[in-house]
Amino acid sequence: MAVIKAVSSKAGINTVLDYVMQEEKTEQKLLSGLNCVPDTVKDEMRVTKLLWDKDGGRTYKHFVQSFAPGEKINPAQAHQIACQLAASRPEWQDFEVLIATHEDKEHIHTHFVVNSVSYVDGHKLQQSKAELQAMKDYSDQLCAKYGLHITEKGKTFDGQEREETVAFSKDTYQLLKKAEQGEVKSYVQDIALAILDCREQATNRTDFVQRMNERGYGVDWQDSHKYITFTDLKRQEQGEKQCKIRKYYNMDFGKENLEHEFEGNARSQQTAQRAREQLAADRGAKTDNRTAEADNIGAFIANIAAQVGNAEAGRQERAAERNRRSAGDTERECRAKEAKRAAEASMRRHRRDDLEL
Fold first, then answer.
1. What is the rounded CA–CA span in Å between residue 50 and residue 43?
2. What single DSSP character describes residue 165?
3. Element (H, E) at 110
C-alpha cells in the first residue's frame, strides 16, 4: 500500500534537494529526473527561475509516496513505480521534477521535488486538490498492477482501523482521550459532540448554524473559505481562538459531507410528513365512510319503517273494509228476513181467507 502526501516546509529549495539526494538515504543511488538530470538539477531549476525572472515566492512543491512497512516491494521497484507516477502527471509535464527513493526508514518511500516555475513558458505550478486526488488514484492503480495493496479509507498507514481521535500534539491527544473517558472536560470534544448531534437533525446549512448557536457555539461557514471553523461563544468572549475541529478528530466535518447529511435529513422529514398526511387522509376517509354508512343505515331503517307503516295502514284499511262489508251483509240479511217474515204472514192471511170462504 502506498500513501501520497504533500509536504509543507519552509526550507529552501537547495536544502531540500540536498536532503533527498543524500547517499546515506539509500544503498542504491535511486535518483531520476523528469525534464532534468539529477546531477545538475539544482543548477537547472535555478536557471529556469532566473530565465523567467521568478526566483522569489514559493520555489518548489514537495510530495512523498510511502509504502507500508512489510509491503513486499524492494527499493528498485518502488523507484520504478515513482517514475511512472511522475511521468503520468499532466500538470508536471512542463516542470523539472527530481525523483529520489529512500530506504533508510522501516518503510520505503520516494520524494518528488517539483520546480515551481515552468521551463517552457515560466508559469507557476498550480496543483489543485482534484489533481492531487488523481495522483493518489493513479498510485493505487500502479500498486494494483504490481500486486501490491492499495489504500483504504478509514485505515491507517499499516492497514489498521483509524481512531476517531487524532492530534498533532501528543499532549493534546492525551487530553482528548481523557475527555473521552470522562476524566477531564474538553471544549473541543463538546463542540465535536454538538456537531454530530446537530448534523443528524438539521435539514440545511441555516438550520445547522442555528442549532449550533442555540447550544452556545458559533459557526464560520463561508463559501470563500475551504473549511468550516467553530467557536465556543463563551470562550470567544474571553479572547479564545476558533476551533479547527478537523485537526483533532478523524471525522468528516467538511462542507460537502455536512450538506449531504442535510439533504438526507430533509428527505427523511419529507417522507415522514407525507406518511403523516397519508395517515390523516386515510383516517378522514374512514370517518367519511362510517358517516356515509350510518346515513345509509338510517335511510334503510327509515325506508323499512315507512314500508311497515304503509303495510299497517293497508291492513287497517282492509280491516275497515271487511267491517263495512260485514255490516252491509248483516243489514241485507235483516231486510231479507224481514221480507221473508212479511211474505209468510201474507201467505197465512190468504190461507185464512180462503178457509173462511
1. 10
2. B
3. strand 109-115
Instruction: For residue 155, give the C-alpha cell.
Output: 485505515
Handedness of CA 32, 33, 39, 41 (dihedral sign): negative
Look up the pTM and report it.
Answer: 0.49
**DSSP 8-state symbol, 100:** E
Longest dimension (CA), the chain: 192
With CA atoms as reference, report the closest residue to 343 among 354, 335, 332.
335
Q: Residues 52-64: pLDDT tens digits?
A: 999 888 899 999 9
Left (φ > 0), alpha (ψ -120 to 50) or beta: where does 260 sit? alpha
β-bridge pairing 31-34 and 229-232: unpaired
**Which residue(s) pair with 4 in the sheet?**
65
Q: What are phi and psi of 248, to 5 degrees?
A: -115, -20
Distance CA 36, CA 41 (A): 6
Which three cell numbers mark 289? 365512510
- Taking 3-state DSSP, the helix, strand and coil percentages for the chain, each rounded to the nearest 5, stand at 55, 15, 30
**Within its chain, how far is the Cα of 145 from the centroid?**
34
Please write the tens of the pLDDT for every residue from 218-251.
Answer: 888 888 888 787 777 877 777 666 555 444 444 5
Beta partners for residue 218, in sequence order? 231
Of 234, 250, 232, the residue nearest 242 (C-alpha): 232
278 CB-near residues (< 8 Å, 6+ apart)? none
